[in-house]
Amino acid sequence: MARAGTTARKTRNQMEKRQAIFEAALDVFSEKGLRGATLEQVAKAAGLSKQNVVYYFNGKDQIYAELLESLLQKWVQPLHDLSAEGDPLDEILTYVSRKVQMSRNMPRESRLFATEILHGAPRLGDVLPTDLKTLVDDKAAIIQGWMDAGKLAPLDPHHLIFSIWSMTQHYADFDVQVRSVLGPERSATRFEDAEAFIKDMLIRTLQP
Amino acid sequence: MARAGTTARKTRNQMEKRQAIFEAALDVFSEKGLRGATLEQVAKAAGLSKQNVVYYFNGKDQIYAELLESLLQKWVQPLHDLSAEGDPLDEILTYVSRKVQMSRNMPRESRLFATEILHGAPRLGDVLPTDLKTLVDDKAAIIQGWMDAGKLAPLDPHHLIFSIWSMTQHYADFDVQVRSVLGPERSATRFEDAEAFIKDMLIRTLQP
DNA sequence: AAAAATGTTGACCGATCGTGCAGAAATCAT
DNA sequence: ATGATTTCTGCACGATCGGTCAACATTTTT
C-alpha cells in the first residue's frame, strides 16, 4: 500500500505528480468551481486516470483544500511586503503594481479565491478572521501612521486596502466582462490602462 | 397538459408560484452556484415539491436562465439613470450611492452575477458585448464630454466605471472577507463607511 | 535475481441528481 | 353535478459522479 497523500512528501516522482494535479486542479476548479468540476476533468487535465489522482490525494475535497492552502501565502505576499520603511506613496503604488500583475499573470488563482469567498469561504476556515485580519490591521496601522504624520491624506486605511483589492482583482475575476465592454482593440492594453488609472486615482486621492 | 413555463403567463396563481420559485432560486443559486445547488433545495426553499417546480419551469437551467434575464435590467438600471443633464460630480456620486445601496440590499443578485461572470458568463450570451457595451460606451461618452468641458479631471471613463463597479460590488460579493477583516464592531457601519470612502476618493480624483 | 515498495488500471458500487410520465387531486367552467 | 382544465405527487429511469478494491505493472531495494 502506498498512501502518497497522507504523510510527508517523499520521492521526486510524487512531488511532480502532485504538482501536475495541482496545476490541473487550478485550471479546472478556477473555471468551473469545486462542485462544478469533476475528478475526471482534473485527472484528464493532469494526464492521469481518475483513480490515480485519488491515489496521490485522498479525494476531490482534499485536492481543493490543499490547493487553496498552498496558494494562500503567495496570494497575500504583496501586502506582506508593504513596508513602513519606504516612501508612503511609493509603497502603495508598488503594491498596486504587484496586484495588477497578479491579476494579469495569475487570473486562475484570483478566480479561485473569489469563488471561494463569494460562497462564504467555508474552507478558508478561520484564516480570514485571524491571519488575514491581523495582516490587514498591521498594514492599516502603518498607513494610518503615514496619514497621522501628514505624509498622506487622511482616509480610512481598511477601506483603502479594500478598494485596491477590488479594483485590481476586478480585472482578473471579471475579465470576460471587461473585455466585452472594452472591445477587442482596447482590451489589448487593459492591464496597462488599469494600472495607470488606479495609480492616477490613488495619487490624486492620497496626495496630502 | 399544462406547460406553465413555455407560453405567456396566465393565472395569478402561476405568477405567484413562479415568483416564489424565483425567490428561492435566488437564495440557493447565489449561495451555492448553479451546479452546486440542487432542484430539491430550490423546491424546498419555495415550499414546493421537486416535480412541481419542474411543472412551472421546464428544468433547472431554465430557472437559472430566466432568473438571470429577469434581473439583468434591474441590475444596470442605476447606470442607465446616469444623465448628461445633471451636475457631473452629482451624477457620479449618486450612481455610487445607488450601487452601494444595491450591494447592501441586493447582495444575492450581486453574487449571482459575480459567479456567472467569474465562470465566463456562458449564459449571459452576447448581452455583454452588445447591450452592456453599448450602455457603457454611451455613459462613458457622457463622462468624456464632461471632462472635455473641463468639468471633471481627465481620466479614462471606462476604467472609471470599472472602478465604481468593483469597489461597490466588493462589499456584496466579498462580504465574508470584509466582515472578517473589519471585525464585528466596524462591520456594523461598513456600508456607510464604504460609501463615504468611495465618494471621498472620487471627489478628490474627479475635481478638475 | 528475488523481494518489496511504489505506481497504475479495470471493474464496479452506492449515492445523488435531473427528468419523464401516468395518474391522483384540486380547481374551474358550464 | 359533471366534465374539463389546472395543479400536484408517486414512481422510477438513466446518467453522472466520487470513491473502493483487487489485480496488474513498474520501479526500487536488498
UniProtKB/TrEMBL annotation, chains A, B:
Gene Ontology process terms (BP): negative regulation of DNA-templated transcription
Q: Which UniProt keywords apply?
A: DNA-binding
InterPro entries under this entry?
Cro/C1-type_HTH, Homeodomain-like_sf, HTH-type_TetR-like_transc_reg, HTH_TetR, Tet_transcr_reg_TetR-rel_C_sf, Tscrpt_reg_YcdC_C
Alphabetical list of Gene3D superfamilies matching this protein = Homeodomain-like, Tetracycline Repressor, domain 2
A molecular function (GO) held by this record is: transcription cis-regulatory region binding
Q: What residue ranges does this record give for the DNA-binding region?
A: 38-57
**Residue ranges annotated for the HTH tetR-type domain, each copy included:** 15-75
Pfam family of the protein (one): TetR_N
Entries under PANTHER family matching the protein: HTH-TYPE TRANSCRIPTIONAL REGULATOR RUTR
What name does UniProt use for this protein? TetR family transcriptional regulator
Species of provenance: Aliiroseovarius halocynthiae
Its taxonomic placement starts with: Bacteria, Pseudomonadati, Pseudomonadota, Alphaproteobacteria, Rhodobacterales
